[in-house]
TrEMBL record:
Residues in Glycosyltransferase 2-like domain copies: 19-171
Source taxon at top rank: Bacteria
Pathway recorded for this protein: Carotenoid biosynthesis; staphyloxanthin biosynthesis; staphyloxanthin from farnesyl diphosphate: step 4/5
GO MF assignments: transferase activity
Similarity remark: Belongs to the glycosyltransferase 2 family. CrtQ subfamily.
Function: Catalyzes the glycosylation of 4,4'-diaponeurosporenoate, i.e. the esterification of glucose at the C1'' position with the carboxyl group of 4,4'-diaponeurosporenic acid, to form glycosyl-4,4'-diaponeurosporenoate. This is a step in the biosynthesis of staphyloxanthin, an orange pigment present in most staphylococci strains.
Record keywords: Cell membrane, Glycosyltransferase, Membrane, Transferase
UniProt name for this protein: 4,4'-diaponeurosporenoate glycosyltransferase
Pfam families the UniProt entry points to: Glycos_transf_2 (PF00535)
Localization (cell): Cell membrane
Length: 239
């Protein structure tokens, strides 16, 4: 992370509103848990939190899950990047607004948004967080050990080396400055973070509020987390 100075913190106004976007494709069995976790994280804040669910080409009962107070956007693009982008496009991208995103198969911790806003008030433009596994039921007995070893091996001084759409936050003005999430079917999170780095935004590579995410073998996005798990865990000699 680029050094956060006192001047940088003073240059940025405090966050006065939060927007959380969750892209969904046929996630009726997961979405309620994700929304409950986000609601718990929002409850500890003293600023308003808007939650937007983006239903992307859903053919199941996902549309019946969001309750009152949840914004719902429907698209038919089969693109997680376009879905995240559509959700944030509905909201003002101001300097005092924090944009955060997670996934329907993920469960954010109660201190997730509090941690993001604490870092934002310290002067960062974006938070790139980590994930932990919800379970390893679909994998070999050694899957957790293999994954943890690979995850730690990628860490470098000052940054953990991972980008997950399940755990990203960015100041609205910085998001708008770099053009937001690209409308791609995968790696939209990686592209956004690269754009923020190229724009010399201050990024916190944070490990303090990891998001618990699904370890399902078949993911919703090509080249997504499920594919990465398969590459790591199913290598010969690792199971």
């Amino acid at each position: 992370m680029r050094e956060v100075t006192a001047d940088a913190a003073r240059d940025r106004p405090p966050i006065r509103a939060v927007t959380v976007v969750i892209p969904v494709h046929d996630e009726a069995d997961e979405l309620a848990g994700a929304l409950d976790a986000v609601a718990d994280a929002a409850a500890v804040l003293d600023v308003p939190v808007r939650v937007t669910v983006v239903l992307d080409a859903c053919t199941d009962a996902s549309a019946s899950i969001p309750g009152p107070g949840i914004d719902v956007v429907a698209v038919d693009v089969r693109s997680v990047g376009a879905a995240r982008r559509s959700g944030f496009a509905c909201h003002h991208a101001g300097d005092d607004v924090w944009f955060a995103t997670t996934d329907a198969d993920s469960r954010v911790p109660r201190d997730w948004l509090h941690r993001h806003l604490w870092l934002a008030d310290a002067g960062v433009d974006a938070v790139v967080g980590t994930v932990v596994a919800r379970d390893w039921a679909q994998w070999s007995v050694d899957a957790g050990r293999v994954f943890d070893a690979d995850y730690r091996a990628r860490q470098r001084r000052g940054r953990h080396g991972h980008v997950h759409g399940a755990n990203i936050g960015v100041r609205g003005s910085a998001y708008a400055r770099v053009g937001g999430f690209p409308a791609t079917r995968s790696d939209e999170d990686v592209a956004l973070v690269a754009a923020l780095e190229n724009a010399r935004c201050t990024i916190a590579w944070d490990t303090e509020a990891p998001v618990a995410t699904s370890t399902r073998r078949v993911g919703r996005a090509p080249a997504g987390f499920a594919g990465a798990l398969a590459e790591i865990i199913d290598l010969p000699g690792t199971a």
